[in-house]
Amino acid sequence: MSAETDIAVLGAGPAGGAAALAAAAGGARVVLIDEQAHPGGQVWRKKDVDLPGLAETPETCAGARLRGDLEASGATFLGGTRLWHIERVEGGWRLHLLTRGDRAETLTARAAILAPGAREFVQPFAGWTTPGVYGLAGATALMKSQGCPPGRRSVVAGGGPLALFAAAEILRLGGEVAAVATPNGRGDWLRCAPILAANPALARRGAELIARIRRAGVPILWRHVVTRAEGDRALIRVHAAPCGAEWAPTGAARAFDADALCVGHGLIPNVDVAVLAGLPRVYDADRGGWVVEAGPDGRTALEGLFLCGDGAALRGAETAARAGAGTGQAALADLRGTPAPPPAPRRPDLRARFGRAMTALARPRPGLLRLTRPNTVVCRCESLTRATLDAAIDAGAAGLDALKSATRCGMGPCGGRYCLTAAARLIEDRTGAAEGTVPPPVPRPPLFPLPVAAVAAGFDYDDLPIPAPAPL
Amino acid sequence: MTRPWDIAVVGGGIMGCATALGLAEGGMRVVVLDKGDLCQGASGVNAGTLSLQIKRVSLMDYALRGHELWEAMGDAVGFRKTGGYTLAFTPREAALLEERQTLKRAAGAPITFVSPKAVWAAEPGIADSVVAASYCPEDGYANSSLTGAYYRARLTEAGIAVRVRCPVEGVEASAGSFALATPDGPVRAARLLLAGGAWLAPLAAMLGVDLPVRARVNTVSVTEAMPALFSTVIGHATGLLTMKQKPNGTVLIGGGWQGRGTPDAGRGQVSADTLAPNVALACHAVPALQDARLLRSWTGFEANVPDFYPLAGALGGVEGAYVLGCVRGGFTIGPYLGRLMADLILGRAPERPLFDPNRSFEGDT
Ligand SMILES: Cc1cc2nc3c(=O)[nH]c(=O)nc-3n(C[C@H](O)[C@H](O)[C@H](O)COP(=O)(O)OP(=O)(O)OC[C@H]3O[C@@H](n4cnc5c(N)ncnc54)[C@H](O)[C@@H]3O)c2cc1C
Ligand SMILES: Cc1cc2nc3c(=O)[nH]c(=O)nc-3n(C[C@H](O)[C@H](O)[C@H](O)COP(=O)(O)OP(=O)(O)OC[C@H]3O[C@@H](n4cnc5c(N)ncnc54)[C@H](O)[C@@H]3O)c2cc1C
User: Fold this and answer.
1) How far, in Å, CA of A87 to CA of A131, rounded?
2) Out of 1.10.10.1100, 1.10.10.60, 3.90.190.20, 1.25.40.20, which CATH number does the structure's domain A372-431 have?
3) Would the pLDDT of A464 be above 60?
């Protein structure tokens, strides 16, 4: 099936949701696409189950408001739908989608707004593939949708506010937390004090989280990293060691009995769709690593293609929503041929500064590479250890394409989503290249394993276009 | 100033690497320069089919020799001799198959015609709509993604200097020597081999030579691992399908369907409009593929000139300059053409004729 619209928005989180609302408010035909069943994205995710008695949070309220507003707007929401390819066509963009029931469909739009958010990075460490080990962000998402903690007794580890949030959330949902390990030092947080003071609501929220963790008697291990997840078929123990300012483990580890570990090492903007559309990547650690350039109104170097939210720069939900609204208006203005609305008055954007500071706290530091030992599996699909990759790098595979060719790293079902960021850093580490000099490989469609039956559907053998045979 | 190289090879694809090896064996000091990495152009992304059934009649001799060389490279390049079937599903395709394979057989390929029953007996996974087929026991495949690592090891062993991420941006020819401009500084050599694949035209233009090189944007796709579905290389009478199942269970689907893009602008893009019929045709041949999931599709640039014959020889008018490229089925034939080319440059008589790059292409459009 193929359909047409004025503006297609990919990603129904704070950024995409606001973009769709802004564009629909101006009367444009808008289709909002998300692989989740409901709008909300990562932070404002809708609960899958209705648990009476569980208090609302600022996030659940914001999500409910967004879903209500979208319902009332003229925008069409396509849930349970994933984008697997995007192509430029005459007068716009064609989105190739896999919708509910595994049907392949296309949507051709005069403008496309990409708001695909971020994904999680986990530096491979001993035992990270043990069942019971979850990504930190993934675990918060799971808690939001399922309303239950990841295990009976969890260790939570990671930089920035997300670890504190996740630990507090586990407690709220009735779980036990054995320890919180964060590579940030108290001083890292103290340095954020002025920014926190300027955002009293957010600061208060943070203080509440910490208070809840303290009240439960949970130790907070500052400047600690998880070095090992122990357990054969299931997690039984987590080892956390002190680390230096660059996050390399420095001392003897402490062990905590636990059946769940939520661990993350920062987020990575989802740039695959924008790159597939033809935009180049640049490295900017402040925005989250390899990113694609987009202006404050979401405009990119390609006509009719916009990018906003955490997929453009990691700045958090509030900033994502504001950027989304501006991007929706800019896309609408382009469509109408009217001048874009005047940019918002240039006062210091406290929320953006807050988002930037929180991103900086969570940004993975180079010492993390020490967590990946020679026998640690890096590419889980193909079971490749760091030693195997190092050997190939030493033999001359000093770029990711060459490393992939030589070892099959990242060529399994996950498409490299879980390992290639780590593999690029291993190459930089091994060859002494600077951070951000080994670009990730060019994404290739489909962006996820695509049922062949869906792509092949509707093909009639008699329509096979037979070209002139190759010369004899 | 450092001593000039005996020869600089521009382009570390299969053509450049194979020739460089022959030149070093012949005693020359060789440097290979590539703007990317070794065999990351067409030579590293191709479908890896080594099939006599899809080779041109007049290149059959070269392809037969190419097959021998691939067999000798063996496991290091993932070589498998599986045999291959070419399938026809309509009377018209059957006629095409009969006409073309008869000529290829006459040219020396051990191709036989087999009944649909024989096909199903050997490959139960093939659709029951087959009406005619041909078979060649010599057919098989290699793993193109291993060619880079393979040649890197071989070139190093042979003492050949390799400069990767080193684009040649200009060439100055003066009496008996060349100076190549690169971001790492000039490289001087007594001879020059242009083996730049789909990027040959701008390279030749640096020497003032106009080569009518064009590029096709071929698409290849791979599925996730499947249970064993078929064991030979499968083709289609029109040439629109090549397919093989690897030892790890993944199925590689090619057939020369065209993506979009040009060599001067990035890596090219997969077009959903051609991907769909390519994959559908694969399912038509092996219906169980319906249950597979597609992991990745990609494109690569395959160069050609209007008559679709190779460019292989001395470049007219520029003493000491040579060109090798635009070879249809170049993955199969490359290792052998590289040898012939090395012989020519070393001043030995190649055992088979090469393909004069200075010929006229008028009328071939
Ligand atoms: C797993 C996870 C959990 C997080 N939890 C929190 C949290 O609890 N608190 C917090 O402050 N921050 C959290 N973050 C950070 C958070 O992502 C952002 O600050 C905020 O959600 C950014 O909003 P956004 O609209 O840019 O992106 P998101 O909210 O991430 O929304 C992007 C949406 O795009 C969809 N999408 C992406 N690609 C495709 C595709 N190809 N096809 C179809 N749909 C697609 C996704 O399903 C998602 O719903 C989390 C991040 C992640 C990755
Ligand atoms: C998708 C696809 C599928 C194919 N399938 C098959 C198949 O199944 N069987 C088969 O036999 N053949 C197949 N072919 C054909 C085969 O791959 C090619 O004929 C062969 O690989 C060409 O080799 P090459 O060395 O000439 O070119 P390439 O491998 O493209 O190498 C050219 C090299 O030159 C370098 N270069 C270019 N310009 C410069 C410069 N200015 N400075 C420095 N370096 C430069 C490039 O970076 C590149 O590495 C296929 C081709 C494609 C694209």
Assistant:
1) 38
2) 1.10.10.1100
3) yes
Query: Ligand 2: distance of its center to the CA of B267 in Å?
Result: 12
The closest residue, in CA terms, to atom 31 on ligand 2 is: B13
| Set of chain A residues whose Cβ sits within 8 Å of the Cβ of B111 | none
Contact A45, A145 (CB under 8 A): yes
In sequence order, which residues have a C-beta less than 8 Å from that of residue A230 and are 6 or more positions away?
A: A127, A130, A236, A237, A238, A239, A255
> Domain boundaries in chain A?
2-119+268-340, 122-265, 372-431
Q: Which of A445, A461, A465 sits opposite B89 (nearest CB)?
A: A461
**Candidate CATH numbers 3.40.50.10300, 3.40.50.300, 3.30.9.10, 1.10.1740.10; the one for domain B81-141+214-303:** 3.30.9.10
pLDDT at A345: 54
pLDDT tens for each residue of A313-349: 999 999 999 999 999 999 999 999 887 766 665 555 7
pLDDT tens-place string over residues A91-137: 999 999 999 999 999 999 999 999 999 999 999 999 999 999 999 99
Rounded to a whole number of angstroms, the distance from the CA of B329 to the nearest CA of chain A is 11
ipTM higher than the 0.95 cut? no
Instruction: Give the pocket of ligand 2 (CB within 6 Å).
Output: B 10-16, 33-36, 40-43, 45-49, 167-168, 195-199, 203, 218, 220, 242, 254, 300-302, 325, 327, 329-332, 334
Could you report the per-residue pLDDT of B81-119, keeping only the tens digit for each? 999 999 999 999 999 999 999 999 999 999 999 999 999
Strands B30-33 and B5-10: parallel
Token pair in block for residue A322:
């504001």
> Is B244 in contact with A468 (CB distance < 8 Å)?
no
| CATH superfamily of the domain spanning A122-265 | FAD/NAD(P)-binding domain (3.50.50.60)
Q: What is the DSSP string of A322-342?
A: HHHHHHHHHHHHHHHTPPPPP
Please determine, for residue A55, whether its predicted confidence score (pLDDT) is greater than 80: no
**CATH number, span A2-119+268-340:** 3.50.50.60
Residue ranges matching CATH 3.50.50.60 in chain B: 5-42+146-213+306-345
